Amino acid sequence: MTKTFAPDSVGLVTPFTVQFDEPLDLACGRTLSNYELVVETYGTLNANKSNAILICHALSGNHHAAGFHSEDDRKPGWWDGYIGPGKAIDTNKFFIVSLNNLGGCSGSTGPRSINPDTGKPWGADFPKLRVRDWVHSQARLADSLGINQWAAVIGGSLGGMQAMRWALEYPSRVRNCVVIASAMKLSAQNIAFNETARQAIISDPEFHNGNYLDHNTYPKNGLAIARMIGHITYLSDDVMGEKFGRDLRSGSFDQGLDELVEFQVESYLRYQGDSFSKNFDANTYILMTRALDYFDLAREYGDDAAAAFRRAQCDFYVASFTTDWRFPIERSREIVDALISAQKNVSYTEVESPYGHDAFLLPNEHYCESFSRYLAGIDTE
Amino acid sequence: MRFDFNQLQGMISERSRVLDLGCGDGALLKLLADSKQVSGYGLEIDPEQIQKCISRGVNVINQNLDRGLGNFEDDSFDTVLMTQALQTMRYPHKVLDEMLRVGKECIITFPNFGHWKARCHLAFKGRMPVSDLLPYEWYDTPNIHFCTFTDFEVLCREKSINVLHRQVVNERSAQLLGNLAPNLFGETAIYRLSK
User: I want to staple A152 with a disulfide (CB 3.0 to 4.6 A). Which of A176, A271, B62, B163 is the partner?
Assistant: First the structure.
């Protein structure tokens, strides 16, 4: 029996792999002689190829942004709430391209792939990628799909950094840049969180200097702890309080009882960490967090963000969320101020939400409405 | 079209850079973009109004004006506008300072609390004025700092602000009286100011 999907779902989707044989020069000075990117698309590319949108994923994201891979899938893609027929990123209007970034672990070439020079998995030796490397590889992907100019490049968090870098690296190839819950560079506190997560992985005895695949193992505990740390920072204090409070999962504080007491929040975080560590690659996690840390939009523009944005030719839409303390509203305001200083077209919404950084993935009326209206105004002819 | 927009249009130069404080649904900026090819931004705090601006294709920035304009550089706009919003500011005098810092010129419109109807309301009914233009009760109103034309001009004098031009705008047939005795018969005034 064929399952029917909701009318605003893209339904069943099938990822495909694109092979690139032209060497890619990387910011670190090394070269990838060939690589693969795994991709999903939603909607239809129009005759002028002028309705294409690129979705850039965040730290732990992948190409599966919308729809279902099989009728038995319990969960749709990571941004399904915002991609589909009639949704903010409307597949009736746009052709949407979503990929797993280079260095990822969902099918694109990354630390788990075989290094052609050694015949063994890259592991820790996989090149340390920067955001611009992703952008250049995405430009090659656009070439292969025959897309000369994106109607929009869209990303949240680390994805927003890619969208901004696109606007600077390929000004003539982007008409709109959508930057959600992002930053032009991370704060010291943010780098500190990432380093703590990395150290959790590296100090796991199963890490083996990143070459754990050679030992048929992986740093399960370290990766789980890294995810737990990350997860705490993606939620707000309020929403954690509301969701878990001090509720107990087991045990009791009755006098005379010596048993272990476990809070709901502990069990929730452990579950999140465990399930993540089974599906994600530790070297990819290290690579992605480093790319986040290294990113500094204006570094090569004399640390002048307005000077950087003067290169851009596209219009911008920026959104942030009030309780996001990992990418706080101040970071988005800095982006907006620099864009105004550079005399670029920009609209900015500061969205009331209790959900912290995760809010950019979740339903929210003001966010959804503003985002939808911005994209509805994009000319695709 | 709101009745003061027509007059405002004539005061804005072609292709100038405009900042509209409390831009509402973006109608004025859209009008100026279409008729005068101005570029610029509207600042607004109400989500629904922000969404309307986005639908119109107007650049809108979600910003609370009571936070000041610290993120805008000195003299970075040809004109800083504020229509019918001065009375909603927590610190109108500080907003005025900020407008004059950021804009080479400022245009402000606000309702006149010295209008004879408002005076009658207070004098004879002994109640705070409620009118079509200002339909709020005193305890629940965004309008927290009303002033009369005279009050505003006194403030400008104290701050050594140049009043380049004042135009009294009345909605219906009272234009003549409004010109004759503005502070008594004027409903709304448009002030053009510079440092």
Answer: A176
Residue A22 forms contact with B (CB below 8 Å): no
Tell me the pLDDT band of B1, cut-offs 50, 70 and 90: low
Nearest CB to A346: which of B59, B63, B71? B59
Q: Which ipTM was obtained for this model?
A: 0.93
Question: What is the helix (H) or strand (E) element at residue B119, kind and residue range?
Answer: helix B116-120
SS3 (DSSP) at A340: helix
Q: List beta partners, residue A317.
A: A178, A347
Q: Does B49 touch chain A (CB under 8 A)?
A: no
Query: What pLDDT band is residue B169 in, cutting at 50, 70 and 90?
Result: confident
Looking at the complex, does the CB of residue A349 fall below 8 Å from at least one CB of chain B? yes
A373 contact B CB<8A: yes
Restricting to B residues 18-47, those with a Cβ less than 8 Å away from any Cβ of A are 39, 41, 47
pLDDT digits (tens, 9 = 90+) for A247-301: 999 998 888 888 899 999 999 999 999 999 999 999 999 999 999 999 999 999 9
Contacts of A237 (CB under 8 A, 6+ apart): none
Closest CA to A376 of A244, A178, A185: A178
Amino acid, single-letter form, for residue A201: I
The ranges of chain A annotated as CATH 1.10.1740.110 are 191-289
> In order of start, what are the domains of chain B with their CATH numbers?
15-113+144-194 (3.40.50.150)
Check CB contact under 8 Å for B55 and A347. no
Question: Among all residues of chain A, which has the CA nearest to that of B59?
Answer: A347
CATH 3.30.360.10 for domain A16-185+297-376, yes or no, is no
**Closest-CA residue to A324 (of A238, A235, A242, A226):** A235
Q: Which residues of chain A have pLDDT under 70?
A: 1-2
Residue written as tokens 């701050």? B159
What are the backbone angles phi and psi of residue B21, rounded to the nearest 5°? -85, 125
Burial A136-162 (b: 16+ CB within 10 A, else e): bbbbebbeebebeebbbbbbbbbbbbb
List the CATH code of the domain at A191-289.
Answer: 1.10.1740.110
Identify which of B47, B55, B61 has the shortest CB distance to residue A377.
B55
Residues of A designated as active site: 157, 324, 357
The reply, when asked if residue A175 is annotated as ligand binding, is no
Tens digits of residue pLDDT in A361-377: 999 999 999 999 999 99
Question: Angle formed by the axes of helices A282-294 and A158-169, to 10°?
Answer: 50
Q: Which residues of A touch B61 (CB under 8 A)?
A: 336, 340, 346-348
The answer to the question of whether A326 is labelled as a binding residue is no
Cα–Cα distance for residue pair B25/B29, rounded to 1 Å: 9
Does residue A322 sit at the B interface (CB-CB below 8 Å)? no
